[in-house]
Design a protein that fits this description.
CATH superfamily of the largest domain: Glycosyl hydrolase domain, family 43
Structural class: mainly beta
Number of strands: 36
Number of domains: 2
Bound molecules: beta-L-arabinofuranose
CATH class of the largest domain: Mainly Beta
Largest sheet: 5 strands, antiparallel
Distance between the termini: 37 Å
Length: 474
């Protein structure tokens, strides 16, 4: 059951914060009581998607029209190592509102496992849901249930993969990923220590078929694969993505065969602010998502990570556009987004310091293609004007206090559809002017400055180059 409505009727996104104060503790208690009354406790929506605890290593899957995310439980570790003891699940029907399903399995469910409940994987087949769970850094077990969120048990009673028993597991068979191809063949990818592995699964999804094989990725720069393999298929092409190390990027490679060999194509997710990177790339409700982890809550660290979701986009040639990491996540528009650069300065319209606050000043800054605070979505009002929505925050470019004066400040503010947040786009040669609906004044770089940090303001339109802009698709 979805319990949280995280957007108030006015469309204002409440601040996201980690619960630390006594007042918040009381709120948490009430929320916990609510959780007892209902089947799922509320989680937050914008990034991170879970705010009441640390969770990591998302394995995201669409089952029956809903996205489920299975996670390592970082709040359950010592804080100095990845020594978690259980796994949790979250789900969403719309990519925005998340339901917390609590713990789905723990180390104690495997009689043969002792420690290190690491990155999970999941699959659905034949009326069952399967979790693939790496433990002890040496084994992967399978738990099965008829529900995606509860009732899982060890179906084999022994590991599916075991370094002590199986050939070619590699030294560290961790980070499983299950992929069922269109022809019904299922694969289990896993691995660390620079060598990804793959093995076919039988249709029972709890036994393997044939040998464990090495996955080859050709052409990756640097050291290539480190951990966190992920497989997805799009337009008949197999995309194999993985983390490159500690810290790591999520790089990806493609092939026409799920077993490879794969050819390096690029970076799907750049470095995050913790020393591991782990991502799911998937399509859900006709949009593509990157679900990954980073430090996003107070008290976060390399071992206390949080799961975030951002949209994933492709270029026309099937290559992945490196994910733009945002605060608003999938609450913001899907896009397309644009960078807006000044004709005179060549600098980009930028929310100062990537602030998420209401009222943050809009300035110009040197273009940074992956900076979400320099990306804007032109949302049509339907009558000839546009709101310019920040990719980072989902907030709108706004003339402060609806000033009509020359020099009126331009800020970000929650979108509310008022005329001081609406702009007409007037083409001048190969450039555009952006004219505020309420004042008729033009967006400009104050005093025609070419410096980083110069304020963006409104001024009487005069056709000068500091009032002209280039729009570039990102
Ligand atoms: O959570 C433990 C380990 O950290 C995972 O197995 C790796 O992918 C890394 O994210």
């Amino acid at each position: 059951m979805i319990l949280n409505a995280h957007i108030t009727p006015g469309g204002h996104v409440p601040p996201r914060r980690w619960i630390t104060t006594a007042v918040s503790a009381m709120i948490a208690m009430v929320m916990a009581m609510t959780a007892v009354l209902f089947t799922g406790a509320p989680a937050q929506a914008a990034n991170p998607i879970v705010t009441d605890r640390f969770v990591a290593d998302p394995s995201a899957h669409v089952f029956n029209g809903r996205m489920y995310v299975y996670a390592t439980h970082d709040s359950d570790n010592s804080g100095t190592y990845w020594d978690s003891k259980d796994w949790r699940a979250y789900s969403t029907a719309d990519g925005v509102n998340w339901t917390d399903h609590g713990q789905v399995f723990s180390l104690s469910g495997f009689s043969w496992a002792t420690r290190l409940a690491w990155a999970p994987a999941a699959a659905q087949r034949n009326g069952y849901y399967y979790l693939y769970l790496p433990v002890d850094r040496t084994k992967i077990g399978v738990a099965r249930s008829t529900s995606p969120t509860s009732g899982f048990s060890d179906v084999r009673g022994t590991p599916l993969i075991d370094t002590a028993r199986d050939a070619n597991t590699g030294v560290e068979p961790i980070d499983p990923m299950t992929f069922i191809d269109d022809d019904g063949q299922a694969y289990l990818y896993f691995g660390s220590s620079r060598q990804p592995k793959v093995v076919r699964l039988n249709s029972d999804m709890m036994s393997t078929s044939g040998p464990i094989m090495n996955v080859t990725v050709n052409g990756a720069p640097g050291q290539g694969f480190a951990e966190a393999p992920w497989m997805h298929k799009r337009n008949g092409l197999y995309y194999f993505s993985f983390s490159t190390g500690w810290p790591g990027q999520i790089q990806y490679a493609t092939a026409t065969n799920p077993l490879g060999p794969f050819t390096y194509r690029g970076v799907a997710i750049d470095y995050v602010n913790v020393n591991t990177n782990h991502a799911s790339l998937l399509e859900f409700n006709n949009k593509w998502y990157a679900v990954y982890h980073k430090k996003a809550l107070e008290g976060g660290s390399n071992h206390r990570r949080s799961i975030v979701a951002d949209y994933l986009h492709y270029n026309a040639d099937g290559s992945i556009k490196t994910v733009v990491q945002t605060a608003i996540g999938t609450e913001g528009p899907y896009g397309p987004y644009e960078m807006i650069t000044g004709r005179q300065s060549g600098k980009a319209i930028d929310v100062q310091s990537g602030s998420t606050a209401d009222g943050a000043p809009i300035i110009q800054w040197s273009p940074k293609p992956l900076a979400a605070n320099q990306h804007w979505f032109f949302r049509s009002t339907g009558d000839g004007y546009y709101s310019l929505v920040s990719r980072n925050t989902g907030k709108c470019l706004d003339v402060s206090r609806a000033s009509t004066a020359d020099g009126g400040n331009v800020i970000q503010w929650p979108c509310k559809g008022t005329a001081n947040q609406q702009w007409s786009v007037v083409t001048v040669d190969n450039y555009v002017q952006l004219v505020a609906r309420h004042s008729g004044k033009c967006l400009e770089v104050r005093s025609a400055s070419t410096a980083d940090g110069a304020a963006i303001i409104q001024w009487t339109c005069k056709g000068s180059t500091n009032q002209q802009w280039t729009r570039t698709a990102m």
